[in-house]
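To illustrate the input format used throughout this study, we show a single complete record. The first block contains the structure-token representation of the backbone; no residue identities are included at this stage. The design step must infer an amino acid for every position from geometry alone.
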């Protein structure tokens, strides 16, 4: 019995150990899933109570083997019970729902079919939304059993493609229910595969996008309407240049019936409007470089007229950032371009008129000042050679001439000032010397009126200043001239004084001209600086004047950044004070500036003989001067003046004569007129410089003695290689001062002399077409090319046929008239060889009729050279 009992105990103990082990998976599941769903706590508590009672019984009966087994089983059961209690709340939530319930309530349609396209199953929404009463009503049916044939055909085609290609596909499917309501579904279908990997049917899901589709379609329709009525021409194309769409304006412009007609076309397929050869390269630039452009494009309108469109084109990128095409918008700017062109032409016409005015003033300056210079020069000679009543008459002539010259210079100043941006250059000079020069210049006029002319230079003034010397000089000339004019008795004071030191190298200087004249009423002191403003009309004869002197003063002062003030009392006098800021210069700078005439140290070192005081007999070694002047009166006056100053003078009336007489080292100084009959003084100077350079000779100083008033004379003189410019007439004091400066190398200040010796000379090059010179004359390359074309037309269509006819008819008077017109046109373009030939023909027509035929042939030859070069370099297809 005991053995049998022991065996039974061992069997029960082993069973209890096995029972305990079986509890372990249950505990692990509860712990992992954090839920005690499916676990009965009452059962497990019952197990614990029974096992605990048996454990006590085994302990009392000393059956330890059985007790150990129950203890192990109790522990395992207790673990499961404890975890079930811990996770009981989580595992028994009121919102628990099964997967089947979730599947049934999915908002989308889930369904699956077999290989025969029979429905094997679906979620509740699928059969309900299509109006069926239960799942059984649709199971086993195909789409042909459920929908109309046209709808079923599209669904079957979609399903067959999924099975045939064995891949997932997405497409829109349209369904119409029994009430005729249309629904759009976005369906995704894929092959249905069993556990063995075999395709057994189709698994699909569809979502109703009817409302979203309608909203999108409405937005697209609105966008399409916006594009259709957009201003301008709107269009877009793919990367191959094929149009994908456009707006209504583009359709109307290209002449198509509808916007759809442009789809699929290229520029070459659209007749009339577009110009593929011009547009395609621009489109390719956008597509290849991927950047937007704004460009003007040509087009031909339906009426055949040409148009210009301003286009903005930008690249279109796909979702990968690759260029997929471009979109463009173009606006017709034809009328705007015409308006702009009209403005440009008007501007050019205005500029041409302004240049013509300037050229006219320059020519008028020469034509008026040349004889006027002769009158003043002759009067100057008569004053020195006369006594008594004859001397007074000569002084009267001199004073009248100087008065007229002053008025004329004021007119030229006004012309210069009205040229936008014109300003004299800065120079270093002695302000004190300038004040005394002004005093010396007006001293004879003051003596004639019995006035005291006083000059006062403040010792505190800098020795040398840097500012616009020519402008300051003109200001003082006008103010002192006015003071003498309006002062019948008493005195005129010219004063320069230091106002303040602005900085270590800048000072503010006051220039005052004070008189005891008639004075200016207080209510009119604000208007005296207006152009052409006179307090008394000229026809009343009370006071001479043009009414532009003070206007010129005011303009000069403003351009130098200064200010002017006037204090005046009627019957007592007036005081005009100009305040200018000037840069302080050193004594060395002053010396260098005064020696910028262009002569070389070796030239200064030559032994020279100063002009003899004996005027009647000239020594053999008297300095020899060449005077180049075409006017016989000026020749006589200037030669007599220079002879009287102690110089030997050779006279040349033309450029050719001057070049024939000139040889390096022969002359110590040359006075060069600008307006010569055969060629201008610039060309003669260039030729002289070329000879000197060829023989490596020292350059002779050349002073332009000119009546030209154009503002560019200074530039052309400097380029030609001259050292200075002196406005006619030349006076004896000026001649002596010029000799001291250029002949003796002294630091002499010459009244009225503009130094240009620091401008690099341009070598003499006689060109068929001097394009650089034409541009310098006219301002821009475009305008130079335009006028060159106009001259080409005039030469070929007017002048050459007219010259041929006049020469054949021996109509010398008509020929002279036509040549005058031709030279007037030639002044706006630089054609040196042709210009020279025309001048020779003009000279022959005036004085040497027997030479007309040969001179005419030279004009024809040079004209032909011009025509050939123009056609090669500047004709429209070359520009």
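Output of the design step:
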């Amino acid at each position: 019995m005991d053995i049998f009992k022991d065996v039974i105990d061992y069997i029960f103990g082993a069973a209890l150990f096995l029972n305990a082990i079986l509890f372990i998976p249950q505990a692990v599941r509860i712990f992992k899933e954090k839920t005690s769903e499916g676990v009965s706590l009452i059962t497990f508590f019952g197990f614990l109570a029974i096992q605990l009672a048996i454990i006590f019984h085994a302990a009392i009966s000393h059956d330890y083997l059985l007790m150990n087994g129950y203890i192990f089983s109790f522990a395992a059961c207790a673990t499961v019970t404890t975890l079930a209690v811990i996770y009981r709340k989580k595992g028994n939530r009121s919102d628990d729902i099964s997967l089947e319930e979730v599947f049934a309530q999915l908002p989308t349609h889930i369904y699956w079919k077999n290989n025969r396209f029979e429905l094997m199953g679906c979620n509740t929404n699928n059969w309900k939304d299509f109006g069926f009463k239960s799942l059984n009503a649709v199971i086993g049916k195909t789409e042909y059993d459920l929908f109309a044939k046209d709808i079923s055909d599209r669904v079957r085609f979609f399903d067959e493609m999924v099975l045939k290609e064995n891949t997932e596909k997405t497409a829109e499917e349209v369904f119409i229910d029994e009430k005729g309501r249309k629904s759009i579904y976005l369906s995704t279908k894929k092959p249905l595969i069993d556990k063995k990997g075999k395709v057994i049917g189709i698994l699909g899901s569809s979502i109703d996008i009817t409302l979203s589709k309608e909203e999108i379609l409405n937005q697209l329709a609105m966008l399409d309407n916006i594009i259709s009525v957009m201003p301008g021409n709107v269009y877009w194309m793919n990367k191959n240049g094929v149009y994908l769409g456009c707006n209504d304006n583009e359709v109307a412009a290209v002449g198509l019936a509808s916007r759809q007609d442009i789809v699929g076309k290229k520029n070459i397929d659209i007749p009339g409007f577009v110009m593929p050869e011009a547009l395609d390269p621009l489109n390719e630039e956008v597509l290849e470089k991927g950047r937007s452009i704004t460009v003007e494009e040509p087009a031909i309108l339906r009426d055949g007229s040409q148009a210009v469109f301003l286009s903005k084109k930008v690249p279109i990128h796909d979702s990968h950032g690759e260029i997929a095409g471009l979109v463009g918008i173009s606006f017709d700017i034809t009328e705007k371009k015409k308006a702009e062109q009209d403005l440009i032409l008007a501007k050019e016409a205005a500029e041409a008129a302004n240049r013509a005015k300037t050229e006219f003033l320059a020519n008028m300056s020469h034509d008026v000042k040349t004889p006027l210079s002769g009158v003043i020069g002759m009067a100057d000679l008569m004053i020195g050679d006369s006594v008594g009543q004859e001397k007074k008459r000569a002084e009267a002539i001199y004073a009248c001439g100087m008065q007229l010259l002053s008025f004329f210079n004021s007119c030229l100043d006004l012309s210069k000032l009205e040229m936008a941006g014109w300003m004299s250059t800065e120079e270093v000079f002695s302000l004190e010397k300038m004040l005394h020069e002004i005093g010396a210049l007006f001293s004879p006029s003051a003596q004639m009126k019995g006035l005291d002319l006083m000059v006062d230079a403040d010792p505190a003034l800098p020795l040398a200043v840097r500012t616009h010397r020519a402008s300051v000089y003109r200001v003082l000339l006008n103010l002192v001239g006015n003071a003498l004019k309006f002062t019948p008795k008493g005195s005129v004071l010219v004063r320069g004084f230091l106002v303040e030191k602005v900085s270590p190298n800048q000072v503010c200087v006051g220039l005052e001209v004070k008189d005891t004249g008639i004075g200016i009423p207080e209510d009119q002191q604000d208007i005296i600086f207006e152009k052409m403003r006179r307090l008394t009309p000229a026809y009343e004869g009370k006071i001479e004047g043009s009414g532009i002197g003070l206007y010129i003063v005011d303009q000069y002062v403003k351009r130098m950044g200064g200010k002017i003030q006037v204090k005046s009392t009627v019957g007592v006098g007036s005081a005009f004070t100009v305040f200018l800021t000037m840069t302080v210069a050193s004594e060395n700078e002053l010396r260098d500036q005064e020696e910028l005439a262009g002569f070389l140290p070796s030239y200064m070192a030559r032994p020279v003989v100063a002009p003899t005081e004996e005027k009647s007999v000239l020594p053999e070694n008297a300095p020899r001067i060449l005077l180049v002047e075409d006017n016989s009166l000026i020749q006589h006056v200037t030669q007599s003046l220079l002879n009287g100053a102690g110089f030997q003078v050779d006279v040349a009336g033309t450029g050719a004569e001057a070049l024939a007489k000139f040889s390096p080292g022969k002359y110590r100084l040359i006075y060069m007129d600008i307006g010569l009959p055969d060629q201008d003084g610039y060309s003669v100077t260039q030729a002289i410089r070329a000879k000197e350079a060829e023989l490596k000779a020292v350059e002779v100083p050349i002073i332009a003695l000119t009546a030209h008033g154009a503002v560019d004379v200074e530039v052309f003189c400097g380029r030609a290689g001259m050292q200075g410019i002196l406005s006619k007439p030349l006076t004896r004091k000026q001649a002596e001062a010029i000799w001291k400066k250029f002949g003796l190398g002294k630091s002499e200040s010459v009244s009225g002399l503009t130094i240009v010796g620091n401008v690099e000379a341009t070598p003499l090059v006689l060109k068929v077409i001097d394009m650089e010179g034409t541009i310098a004359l006219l301002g821009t390359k475009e305008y130079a090319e335009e006028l060159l074309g106009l001259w080409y037309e005039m030469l070929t269509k007017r002048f050459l046929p007219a010259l041929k006819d006049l020469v054949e008819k021996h109509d010398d008077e008509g020929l002279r008239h036509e040549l005058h017109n031709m030279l007037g046109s030639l002044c706006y373009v630089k054609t040196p060889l042709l210009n020279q030939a025309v001048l020779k023909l003009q000279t022959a027509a005036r004085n040497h009729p027997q030479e007309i035929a040969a001179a005419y042939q030279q004009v024809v030859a040079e004209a032909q050279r011009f025509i050939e070069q123009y056609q090669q370099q500047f004709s429209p297809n070359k520009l």
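Structural context for interpreting the output: The longest helix spans residues 334-385. The chain has a mean pLDDT of 78.
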